[in-house]
Amino acid sequence: MRLSHKKKIAAKRGSKHSKGYVMVNKITLNFSSLIVEGYRYIDIEVSKIIECPLVNYRGYSTEGIEFLASSMKKDGLQTPIEVREVEGLYEVLAGKRRWVAAVFLGMTTIKAVVSNISDSEFKLQKQLLKMTLKSI
Question: Exposed/middle/buried for 93, CB within 10 Å: 0-12, 13-18, 19+?
């Protein structure tokens, strides 16, 4: 299933219909098993998530995590984390603070985008991002 750019934006801004579902132009999308352009959107168990050794995580404060957790409790998770599957577990590529906040809240599952990216592709992506940010 491929979504147009407008529908992707609508899916991001879509109204919450029910747990795990979003209404987009009167079409209900189930985010627990959606596949869009090679990425899988699924709910995964928080206990199956580990840190990715390729990512240099910034430090974070306990107060910051508590604030994020209260926001997630009030409004829900607004942006899924990005992970990749490695030997039956999932490595966090983006969204470690959201993952830690989910653990803090005692959530058992979290919405995630599963990408099929190799180590070399990930390193290249990081280098390109750094070069782009340096030119700004």
Answer: buried
Average pLDDT rounded to a whole number, residues 22-47: 61
**Structural domains present in the chain:** 1-37 (no CATH), 41-135 (3.90.1530.10)
Token pair of 5 as six digits: 């750019």
- Output the pTM of the full model: 0.66
- Three-point CA angle 48, 50, 55, nearest 5°: 150
**For residue 25, what are the contacts with CB-CB under 8 A and spacing of at least 6?**
7, 10
